[in-house]
Amino acid sequence: MEGRTKNKSAGAPPAEGGRPTLKTIAFMTGLGITTVSRALKDAPDIGAETKERVRLVAKQIGYQPNRAGVRLRTGKTNVISLVLTLEEEIMGITSPMVIGITEILAGTPYHLVVTPYSSTKDPLGPIRYILDTGAADGVIISRMEPNDPRVTLLTERQLPFVTHGRTKMGIVHPYHDFDNERFAYEAVRKLVERGRRRLVLLEPPPHLSFHQHMRTGFERGLRDFGAESVSFHQVNIDHSLKTIRDAFEALMRSNEAPDGIVSGSGSGAIALIAGLEAAGKKAGVDADMVSKVPSDFLRWLRPEVITMYEDIRLAGRELAKAVIGHIEGRPPETLQSLGQPEFQSTIPGQQT
């Protein structure tokens, strides 16, 4: 039998610091360490039955390869680093994105490591750390700027990466983005169809790429459908919900009050509704709203709001596939995708 060894003692399986090792699997299967290692690597000279037995034991005991050892042998870490900011957690995109990424990585040798940072600090800090320490084989970054220094640095250092969002730098790189221009355009269409003409936009921060995309779609919609814009530039989706609420209450109490609202985030929409109601007005009566959302919660709680679903889980899957493709050397222009808006009805499971 392949690699069969005789167990001379019935003691506990060998382990290093309590962590299951190849020795542990060898002890439990009665196989040699070399055979176990080759079985886990799917070596062609190891029988299918032996491979299955080794993999089953490895799964049962929670075995994970020693990353330091893998790196010494291959020069790879088998790590993908997802660099996220606190703002993305506030907007509710972290969990579904991580789920989407891990769904793709589950069938690969790669592990996901989330690297958080504050947007108030140097955005290059996490990237420099990953580059200087060799902490990952690939990086996923988000909240892109039109001219983003992270893209320049990653390209210069030749570390595979993918961006959640697009740039305008003349550098062709992998990305997955959401079509915020189309979202805003179609949102204006929906509001005008309901007889609304004075529209306001709660937009992303002006330094981010998707601010330009959303603003372009909104203004094009205003022109095409004969509506006008009400200024609301003093706040954006990155401000606290209280700040957004207070600013919108003041606007709704003024002579410039809009009758149609486009919200660039689901959490921001909640603040806008609170401000509208604090001003003694009612959503769906005094003003209609269209909001981008990452889940069904707003639609369930406020069916009078027209919601557009942004599939963050899908974004995670697309980002994971793109960064793996970049690591494998595929051309970056073949690793670009654009998610489309899905307007939802107030009936679960239906779109409008």
From TrEMBL:
User: Is-annotated flag, keyword Magnesium?
Assistant: no
Lineage runs: Bacteria, Pseudomonadati, Pseudomonadota, Alphaproteobacteria, Hyphomicrobiales
User: Where does the record place Polar residues bias?
Assistant: 334-352
Q: Would you tell me the protein name for this molecule?
A: Putative LacI family transcriptional regulator
Q: Which CDD domains match?
A: HTH_LacI, PBP1_RafR-like
Species the sequence originates in: Sinorhizobium sojae CCBAU 05684
Q: Where is this region: Disordered?
A: 1-20, 331-352
User: Boundaries of each HTH lacI-type domain copy?
Assistant: 20-74
Is Transcription regulation there in the keyword field? yes
Signal peptide region: none
Q: Which SMART domains match?
A: HTH_LACI
The superkingdom of the source organism is Bacteria
